[in-house]
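All the exercises in this workshop are built on plain-text protein records. An example says more than a description, so a record of this kind follows:
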Amino acid sequence: MTDSLKIFCINLGTYIPFSGGETLDDIASRLGDRLGFTPVCARVNNKVEDLVFTVFTPKQVEFLPYGSPEGKRCHTASLCMVLYRAVESVAPGSVLTISHSVCGGLFCRVDGLTADDANAGLLRREMARLIAEDHPIERRERPTEDVIRMFASQGLEQKVKLLHTLHELYTVYYRLDGLADTCQGPLLPRTGMIRAFDIVTYRDGFLLLGADPADPSRVAPMVPQPKVFEAFVQYKRFNRIIGISNAGDVNEIVEKKEDDMMVNVAEALHNKYIREIADTITARHRDGGARVVLIAGPSSSGKTTFTKRLSIELLTNLIKPVMISLDDYFVDRHRTPLDENGEKDYESLFALDLELFNDHLNRLIAGEEVELPYYNFEKGEREFRGHRISLQPDTILLIEGIHGLNPQLTEGVEERMKYRVYVSALSSITIDNHNWVSTTDNRLLRRMIRDYKYRGTSPIDTIARWPSVRRGEEKWIFPYQENADSIFNSSLLFELGVIRDEAERVLRTVPRDRVEYATAHRLRRFLNYFAPIPSRVIPPTSLLREFLGGSSFHY
């Protein structure tokens, strides 16, 4: 071993000598128990790499565990490749499609294999065998034309179409037990490193469950989400009818200069669903209920634009919407509850004055006039400035906020007087059969563009804060999404093409010497799957305008 070659291991805070040509897996195995965990991948000079990454020159390396976001992605992607290998063994020639994340797992269909418990058992046993035999997962790179021929021989038509539209000279792929595949990110070096998993029947397909990030020795719990699942199905059905289901389909349309029609049809679908929600609210209102409409959803789901467009549709139904901001019901800053780190938790439900809020809603529903509060964020205090409102028979309250679906927010209001809407960007297209589009990544890209352009927030700050945002969503939003009366899917099948150029400009401002560069680099690679679409083709009322600018609405 040559002492002149060393990596700096961030985990240990020291230099580790290595021989040129060693893999990260080799180096990690020499460290033994010093790391205190089993690494699954690593950040190398702030880029996430496989453990089979070969080191020839000095690097900065941080080994990453199963429980890290990068480790979870690596484990999940590896598990998907094992599932593909198992499908080919159990039902040769069948087409596996991994559609989307839902219910705590990944929803999959296998054309040619009935979704029943017996077949789930066959797949489970075959996957367990592949894991027990500890097969190597090899990373390779070859000319794209060679990879296209390889995928064509395996019947991977969507991957062939995608590679044709990307026009890359070389393509990285992985091989497991004689079968090749492409993945969005790094994979484990061996199948034996895969932890707990399960595959069960769900609706007309299978649900692939990975390891619980909190305890990788256990299977992640399945969380029934029938309403969210149906929202996915609704859009998938529409995609099949218009013949667009994956990135390759979108890219072909862009190459043919037919993207304007795709945009118009997708925007029309949004209009249709918003109108249907408005009609349902109107019918309930005229039947004596639905005086309060609560609109909730995670960060950058498009709640604000949805609320404005819903207001327009309600007006066409001769219903007058009146807005109330939940922010004005914050308790005085010194009364804000603290989180587990002793910091003020402004995302907590109990950062709101629930008693006053429920009192005002009930008085308004009863026909009384109330004076609405105004929260002075500079002083951290609630003030009353003489803003008084009352509800007329043809008036509905619209309330947008992250806690809208939480029963505790409005527990003092009669149930029939409430109508709840959940808004989220449930990505309805995939990259290809085996690679889905992360709803979380979609929202992060939206937020990064908006905050950079209109809130003076750097992408470094947005990326750094994102884990905290996600923890708040997991605690205060996602547990209540099934309480919704309606779910609005705010994703648009063309949106990643439209935001690609803008997002890349923002992401390129993240310097390589920042840990946030790893996320920026991953997102840039992800965006490269989609051909750019000029933003001029989307209308001023589009939900995407909330993030890109050029909207006819005021924010």
Notes: The CA atoms of residues 8 and 60 lie 5 Å apart. The longest strand covers residues 381-389.
